[in-house]
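Good morning C.,

I know you're traveling, so I'll keep this short. The sequence:
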Amino acid sequence: MYSDYVSAGFDPVGFWSLTPRLYLAQMKGANARIEREAREAAWHAWHVAAFTRARKLPKLDKILKPAAKTRRTKVNWQDQAGMWAAYAARRARKPSRS
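The tokens, ready to paste straight into the viewer:
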């Protein structure tokens, strides 16, 4: 387990303070990162090969997708204060976990 943890790129000193749940969470995260990086590398390789075969390169605007625009609704401060008050009231009703 220790060697797997270190080979995943984590600090060796941190291994000894981990619970089994934290170890598993960090290793799952590292695995997801490695899979994502492999997909990105394959994407890059495919596009490089495709562009070397192209007689004419497409415009960069057609290749790159525009950044997704998030639509934000404007909330006035009175509504926002009401939301926070409702949140605080819900928190006050919940029994503490201590």
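Safe travels,
E.
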